[in-house]
Amino acid sequence: MKFTDGFWLMRDGVRASYATDVRDVREGEGRFTAYAAVHRVRERGDTLNTPLVTVECFSPADGVIGVRATHHAGKAAHGPDFRLYETEGAGILKREGTVIELASGPLTVRLDTSKPWGLQFLDADDKLLTAVERRGTGFATAPDGSHHMIGQLALGVGEYIYGLGERFTPYVKNGQNVDIWQADGGTSSEQAYKNIPFHLSSRGYGVFVNHPGKVSYEIGSESVGQVQFSVEDQSIEYYVIAGPTPKDVLRRYTALTGRPALPPAWSFGLWLTTSFCTPYDEETVTAFVDGMAERDIPLGVFHFDCFWMREYQWTDFRWDPEVFPDPEGMLRRLRERGLKVSVWINPYIAQKSALFAGAAAEGYLVRRPNGDIWQWDLWQPGMALVDFTNPAAREWYAGLLRNLLDQGVDCFKTDFGERVPTDVLWHDGSDPERMHNYYAQLYNSTVFELLEKERGPGQAVVFARSATAGGQQFPVHWGGDCFASLGAMAESLRGGLSLSLSGFGFWSHDIGGFEGTPDPAVFKRWLAFGLLSSHSRLHGNVSYRVPWAFGDEAVDVARKFTRLKHRLMPYLYGVAVEAHRTGVPVMRPMFLEFPDDPACRTLDRQYMLGPDLLVAPVLTAEGDVEFYVPEGTWTHLLTGESVTGPAWRHETHGFDSLPLYVRPGALLPLGADDQRADGDWLQDLTLLVAPDTEDGTEITVPDLEGRPAAVFRAERDGAGVRVTAEGSARAFTVRTVADWADPGGNPSPGGGDKDMQAVHHRRNDPGT
Prior knowledge:
It holds the Pfam family Glyco_hydro_31_3rd. The protein is α+β, with helices and mostly antiparallel strands.
């Protein structure tokens, strides 16, 4: 929200007050509280009839410093609040003369009480990261009487801002105004399904605004040298999070708000759905599954979208008996073919649903202030909203899903959760404005926790659309409703890159686009991108997304990249384990891996898949693609071609290819099983050695539970590289990337090694 009219004036009807003069500081254990007048105090009379802003500085965790600015502290706290994982004793207070400092790990906040109000945030080398300057702390009243707390942090010269959730607007957020407010707006507008009040700076720090409701950002868009954030409240709380690298920032942020769960390995396989409005029954489903098998396209998960239930009755969690007379038998037959099954759900109960009357009587549905159940006819006639703040309603909802799990369903697509009304009363008394965004957290956690309880740790996965801060704990999230166009493919990628810099480790999107029917060229280009993403799903709106609907070449492309992804699983699941343990995402903006390379700071049409694979989706039908390679010798995984960076590249690719380069110095594990995502990865494992691999380079191949199964280490041996294994005595092969690849673009099935030695240990003890 903008409050000023240019540099000197306020907007019509806006009255603002800003912390100006430090009047007192009270010290506590690992914290301090400053009291700032909003005018210069020259005499005692200046302390009368004027506000005082209370500013608390504290540390909830190592490398994190919190700032809470309050105007009137008496406002009742109705919640909800983000759950934060805090640690005791993280802050150390020091005072010398007029300067008071609070240090937490490599981060320090400094206040000089002899100067006008301001805070400086310094790194471990005492270098300024950002600062609260003039107008950096204050409050304003708008013409409608609403009260807003305002925070500002200085935006340095050449500094870029990223994140704020899955945003489809420009990847670098400088110059944008962003409202953190859940909306079902597709991928072609400023609205977003996943709104996260966290941004990451190219200068090596992050900022999390601890407010679950609407947070309005002006990122150099009101005061061009400031990142401003405001909330309609009497208090604003934010955390500055240290680096020094962007990965360090994400590690600290996700330690505070929650690390992603580790999705099961099978979820990384190809998902095929019935699509949204398309007609289908078991015969249709069987034809799809048969068609994939006949064309040798490995399939991991089959998803039933909306119309597995009866029309007008979403949700009642009951299979349409006219279309699916034997759901248990059908699910059993799909399981016998090695498939997992997902079904679509949402948090709404239509009036025609058999569940409506009982849920209303038990108080499981959200009500208006007058006691009426909140309903409307958008999406479903007479639709009501499940009140997840009611523990009994959560248990009731989970029980309905448990019945489906007992039938043979494996996971759920948790659709919707954005259009949450604010003119309602919640069971636990939550503030409706704060609950609007937070509802997604209750919805997804209810479903995810049930899956974890019923299927066991490591076997829970949802396909969620909406999320707020902390939602990364319940993967996977997909990019929402995009058009079937190359432009929408680029929009989706921007959204995924922004989400990855907001603490989310896993992300997917609708291959081919959701709205409409893609041109075959769009579909084939999207296949390569989708199968080189964390999770891969074929899904559409009014038409099926089976590859043969788009021609024989689409079948070949789908087969090639699905099988390639399966072979990459020893690498990808290791990256997934890293995301689970550290919060560093699977799909990484180039800036995340190369923060010191200025050219990488604005790149939004390419990414790193884990630390060692550069992917540049082709966003033209003709195959022209422009991308950037950082320093070193990069080797194309499919062709073996080498390129040397730093350099911009312009290439032209057929539909069965795209820029897919192995990083210099990488040790890349490839499995032999290209038919399933959860195979035996150590069976006939191949290790690809890239140019410039250094002595001591290691790669860990996990087992299906994410535990280390084997550690492989490269050692320079004359002109070649020697690779040894710890934890496994099974045979493996070592090859160069160039030798494994094929100039025609296909992975080579055989061939001699070049200057490589495979050493197979017979002992499993670490340190051998």
